[in-house]
Design brief:
The chain has 153 residues and is mainly α. The protein has a single domain, classed as Up-down Bundle (Four Helix Bundle (Hemerythrin (Met), subunit A)). It has five helices and no strands. α3 runs antiparallel to α4. The longest helix is centred in the middle third of the chain and has 34 residues. The chain is elongated. The model has no long low-confidence stretch (mean pLDDT 96).
C-alpha cells in the first residue's frame, strides 16, 4: 500500500498531537531531575519547588515554567484538535484536506513547543503567539468545513 496525502491518515494525528502535548512535560521533568530531583510522590509541586529553590538559576526556573506552560497549552489544544479531526472524518471531508491540515497543525504544535520552551524574549513571545493563533484556527476550520458539508446534504 502506497501512502499519499490522499490516504486516510488524519486520525493518526490525534495521538501525535497528544505526544506533542506531553513532550514539554518530559523536558520539564528532566530539568527538575537534574537540578533538585523530581518528587514523583508530590509531582504537582515540582515546579514550585524549583521556583523556590536557591540552588536553581532563574534561567532554568523560567525554562521549567515555560515547559509547564507549553504542556498545559498542548492539553488545552488537544480536545479541539480531536473534535476537528473526528468531525472532518464523520462529515466525509476529503483525505487530502484532512491530511494537509493535520500536518500543518502538527508543525505548528512542534514549533510552538520549541519557541515557548527555548526562547525568552518579547519578540519571540510574539512569534509564539502567532504560531498559537495559526494552529488554533485549524481545528475550527475543520469543524466549520464539516458542518458546512453536512448542512449541504
Amino acid at each position: 500500500m502506497t501512502l499519499t496525502l490522499s490516504s486516510p491518515l488524519s486520525l493518526y494525528s490525534i495521538p501525535i498531537v497528544w505526544i506533542l502535548a506531553y513532550h514539554p512535560q518530559v523536558i520539564k521533568g528532566n530539568l527538575i531531575k537534574k537540578t533538585i530531583g523530581y518528587d514523583n510522590v508530590n509531582a504537582r509541586t515540582n515546579v514550585k519547588r524549583v521556583a523556590d529553590s536557591d540552588k536553581v538559576s532563574r534561567e532554568v526556573v523560567a525554562r521549567v515554567q515555560r515547559a509547564e506552560g507549553a504542556h498545559l497549552n498542548g492539553l488545552e489544544a488537544l480536545p479541539m484538535w480531536g473534535l476537528g479531526i473526528l468531525a472532518g472524518n464523520f462529515a466525509g471531508l476529503d483525505h487530502w484536506t484532512l491530511n494537509v491540515v493535520s500536518l500543518a497543525f502538527i508543525l505548528t504544535r512542534f514549533t510552538y513547543n520549541q519557541v515557548y520552551i527555548n526562547y525568552n524574549t518579547l519578540g519571540k513571545g510574539f512569534f509564539r503567539s502567532l504560531v498559537w493563533a495559526a494552529g488554533s484556527l485549524m481545528p475550527l476550520y475543520l469543524v466549520v468545513k464539516a458542518a458546512n458539508k453536512l448542512a449541504a446534504q
